[in-house]
Amino acid sequence: MDNFISFDRSLSDPLNSIEIYNPINKEIPDISTGGGNIIQIKGLIYPKDSIGRSFQQDWFIRFPWLEYSPSLDTVFWYPCRQFLSHGTKENVFKNIGFKNWKSAIEKRKGLCKHADSRVHLTAMANWREKELRESSQLEIATLVSVNELALRGNYDIDENTGHGFRNLFEYTLTKDPKLAEIYTQIPKNAHYLSPDIQNDVIDIMSEVVREEIIFEILDADVPWFTLLEDDTRDRNNIEHVSIGNSYVRKDKVFESLVNVATTLSSDAKTMANSTLEILRNNGLDSKRLLSQCYDGASVMSGGKGGVHTLIQEELHRKVPYVHCFNHRLHLVIMKLISEVPELKIFFDQCRMLHLFLNHVKVISIYTGTRIGRLLEQRWSGHLKITEAIYSNY
């Protein structure tokens, strides 16, 4: 029998996300701390009191919010500990702990009495309100992120960025009276709308997605994967490295993004070291690395000092480099464009239009569609600027 189980409780599903721990070499935990998961001990020999009574493990099933403290031999009520105000008079199930085992489950006494008490119902209501508020914000952040809309965190420099997260939250308040009521009652410093909170939510979501991707890679049909990597510089002049893996699972080929990291430098040595470190940090053994796929830039493909060569040297084995087919196709398209006069003239005019619309005297008064700068190594830019011109001019 497992010695203890940690429950990540939610009001909508009391048994949601059960984590079962191996009892070997594990210290028995006490009650939850700092708003952590509910902890319920299993398989212990609970000490008996002077009349031979003790805590019973079955009470966890009857009272799913109960916590037992082995160090104190008492029980606490999780929602009362976490969600009652500091001024609440009753403190047995909140601070001191209950251990009158004889009357613990008698009608109108002990645990049964407390479960129907106003104090407990208040704590449950506070918990429900907190869950509703946080789940609403999480759903909004998910919607904004999936649709690639700006959340407007504190790292934004462009003042034209919209307040996507706040605008959607304010719209949700108009459609959810209960959430609106809660929002008006909580302190202004607890609205969970700050840029830091938004960034924390994104980090949590990305970690959940990343864990699922790593599981799929490790659960692949064959134990090897291909490394996919590309880098780009954002509008704030920060270098970002995107690292993905290609693998076969359930007879299908998948390509999944594992991580996006920032680097202080884009030289081959820094890129190679960062790549191997990211693989290690995500539990991906480099021994399973079958091949490497990058663009044709010398920093990645160089035969003497490129990233693929440095990774082979670090792993002391051959890990073949494959020039990305999309990048190769793009080179063909760029060559074709340069050989067709009409296409060359069109994209030359696109470049001049970009320079004109981004001139300091024009950008302040122009309110139309923004046109990005054409980069030969980014094939998607040519399609976007063509669509923008076709739709607007």
TrEMBL record:
Residue span(s) of domain TTF-type: 51-139
Record Pfam families: DUF4371
Coiled coil feature spans: none
Entries under InterPro entries matching the protein: DUF4371 (IPR025398), Znf_TTF (IPR006580)
PANTHER family: OS05G0311600 PROTEIN (PTHR45749:SF37), PTHR45749
Name of the protein this chain belongs to: Zinc finger MYM-type protein 1-like
Organism whose genome encodes this protein: Oopsacas minuta
